[in-house]
Amino acid sequence: MIQLKTKYDCCGCEACIQTCPAKCISFSEDAEGFGYPVVNEQACVGCGLCDTVCPVLNALEPAAPMSVLAARNKSEEDLLNSSSGGIFVALARKVLQDNGVVYGAAFSPDFQTVNHKGIEKYEDLPALMGSKYLQSRIGNCFSDIKACLDGKRKVLFCGTGCQVKALKLFLKKEYANLVAVDFICHGVPSPAVWRSYLKQSIQDKSIKSISFRDKRSGWIYYSFTLKTAGPSGNTVQEISQPYTRNPYLWLFMNDYSLRPSCFHCPAKNGGSHSDITIGDYWGIEDSHPSFFDEKGVGLLMVNTTKGQEIISDLDLDMLATSLEEAVLENPTYLYSRKEPAKRADFFRKFSAGTPVNSLYGIYKRKKSISQIPVFFKKKINAIKKRLP
Ligand SMILES: Cc1cc2nc3c(=O)[nH]c(=O)nc-3n(C[C@H](O)[C@H](O)[C@H](O)COP(=O)(O)OP(=O)(O)OC[C@H]3O[C@@H](n4cnc5c(N)ncnc54)[C@H](O)[C@@H]3O)c2cc1C
Ligand code: SF4
Ligand code: SF4
Ligand code: SF4
């Protein structure tokens, strides 16, 4: 039976809940806003199935990619509407064309939560496109995917490495008709921090759209953009901030709002057993300037022959590179983020009601002050280098 000793021991994949024959596991949000399983011990029949599907309890042998590429969708529209190189949408179109089902993360209609869901029509694809930087709920998706696979439907699942690993453990066997895709993962921020930030940002307005990766300011210097409408619905207002100056994104990038399990990720370095891993090809402007595109360049790791087959049939421009080069500017493929010393302090203040914008002010200032000695050391070194 699942027994969590610490908050680091659960990535919130919900596989245990879906596998439990006694239906005695529920999911409950803690004060930080992350969901954890809670077992009703009176109803538990002691079968141990929950332990066998848990991605934290079960290690999968790390698998090195067969090939590593830089990739870019040939459709300008798809590229601009995707976070990175538009690889996901190319894969999804292929699977829909083959009468398959595509599973990915979508906002709820009120933008308060992100949930995984399956779609079967092209017109539903935009809802799954683009990164949503908060933890997505899996719900019953793994059970639904198993039913599709057993019914011989082709399925594409895209999610975090731990979600892919959990799906593989849940299914217990390899399916030729499943394409499992994960992305290089920095970690997932707290849904409660997101809801609080949203409340503070929109007040009584209704949300029209949200983009965490608005490429109007470029792929590298992307912005967070939130469009709202007033009570009459006709006046659209826009908040758009570079990612470095958006409070919510700053706290995510600087690891304060991440889930505890993300500091000891169970799916790094090929540990998810996905067929394909996607990400941003950061640094391409220096390593392969002729392939750089300010609308975005994706990183594509092909991990299995199944992955190899599907990508050979996609509408992508591709350039073969190497793992060493690709992870140079994207080390979260290999390593978990380091927990900030002040993370507990951050969540204490958050739980006590300190607004997200104020928390951003506090921790950004602290970080800037702590970096002053590093800044001066670098300056002194630069001056020393210039001295004869
Ligand atoms: C929380 C998070 C952290 C990330 N960290 C990194 C990183 O450190 N380095 C890096 O190179 N890339 C990272 N990515 C991946 C990156 O943002 C792009 O999603 C990826 O490069 C694919 O881009 P694309 O243009 O091919 O597809 P996109 O159209 O951007 O498709 C993204 C896919 O991710 C799924 N998705 C979106 N949000 C979530 C979510 N919250 N949970 C699960 N699945 C989701 C969508 O359903 C879709 O299938 C992260 C993504 C997320 C959601
Ligand atoms: S041991 Fe079996 S019955 Fe008990 S919680 Fe786990 S899956 Fe459910
Ligand atoms: S990681 Fe997933 S399977 Fe393991 S305890 Fe948490 S929710 Fe359950
Ligand atoms: S960093 Fe690891 S544990 Fe955290 S969401 Fe990503 S894959 Fe899961």
Protein traits:
388 residues, 14 strands, 32% helix, globular, disordered C terminus, binds flavin-adenine dinucleotide
How are the SSEs ordered, and which strands pair?
Elements: H1 15-19, E1 25-29, E2 35-39, H2 49-53, E3 67-73, H3 76-80, H4 87-97, E4 101-107, E5 114-119, H5 125-128, E6 136-137, H6 141-150, E7 155-159, H7 161-171, E8 178-183, H8 191-202, E9 206-214, E10 223-229, E11 236-242, H9 247-253, E12 276-280, H10 284-287, E13 298-302, H11 305-311, E14 316-320, H12 323-327, H13 343-351, H14 356-386
Parallel strand pairs: 4-7, 5-6, 7-8, 8-12
Antiparallel strand pairs: 1-2, 3-13, 3-14, 4-5, 9-10, 10-11, 12-13
Helix pairs in contact: 9-14
This protein binds flavin-adenine dinucleotide and iron/sulfur cluster (3 copies).
Residues 2, 10-16, 37, 53-56, 166 line the site of one iron/sulfur cluster (SF4).
Question: What's the helical proportion of residues?
Answer: 25-40%
Report low-confidence residues grouped into runs of 5 or more. 383-388
Number of helices: 14
H-E string = HEEHEHHEEHEHEHEHEEEHEHEHEHHH
Task: List the bound ligands.
Answer: flavin-adenine dinucleotide, iron/sulfur cluster
Strand content: 15-25%
- The structure class reads alpha/beta
